[in-house]
Specification:
Structural class: alpha/beta
Strand content: 15-25%
Shape: globular
Number of helices: 7
Length: 184
């Protein structure tokens, strides 16, 4: 069972949390956000997920951390979370941006996280059903060995088709994805 911290309760964060809950893969699901109250979403209405206002350093037994904030906020979020101090045991930390390398997570790496990226190739919205779109979707996974292994494991729990992509090819994949999704 996974013990997951998600920073950001937008489309990607909520869909990922919902999908993990739907396949009964989470023992603990914690969301951290910028507002005192969680968004209106079944994850919080049913008590499946815990809401934390602000930053909450994940405990050492956390199996994955996802930063699902907008690309422009990733550097600040990585610095803020890294500023919480070391996590003890290596905890896999992911961003979900296709256009950025894992370099943006360097402040987390410096605190003992293994870093990677986890990007589902599917269009998401804020609906409670968006999590179902992740089930069986192709998911690009890359990063350090420990993070990549955790990313593959989580993608497989979702029934996803794991696609590994070297960080150097991510910008081209980002452009291709934009064209494909615009045509869809």
């Amino acid at each position: 069972m996974e013990r997951v911290h998600i920073f950001g309760a937008g489309r990607m964060g909520l869909a990922l949390g919902q999908a993990l809950a739907e396949v009964e893969a989470v023992e603990r699901l914690v969301f951290c956000g910028r507002t005192p109250d969680p968004p209106v979403h079944p994850l919080f209405l049913t008590g499946v997920a815990e809401w934390v206002y602000g930053l909450d350093r994940p405990p050492p037994d956390t199996t994955a951390v996802f930063l699902t904030v907008p690309e422009s906020d990733l550097p600040e979020m990585a610095w803020a979370l890294g500023g919480q101090g070391p996590v003890g045991a290596p905890v896999p930390a992911f961003h979900t941006s296709l256009g950025l390398s894992t370099e943006v997570l360097a402040p987390l790496h410096a605190q003992g996280y293994t870093v990677g990226s986890f990007h589902p190739l599917v269009r998401l919205d804020r609906s409670p059903e968006a999590g179902r779109r992740l089930l069986g979707a192709p998911i690009l996974v890359s990063g350090e060995r420990g993070a990549a292994a955790a990313g593959r494991r989580i993608a497989q729990l979702l029934g996803g088709r794991v696609l590994e992509l070297p960080v150097t090819r991510r910008p081209a994949a980002s452009a291709a994805e934009a064209l494909i999704l615009r045509a869809a």
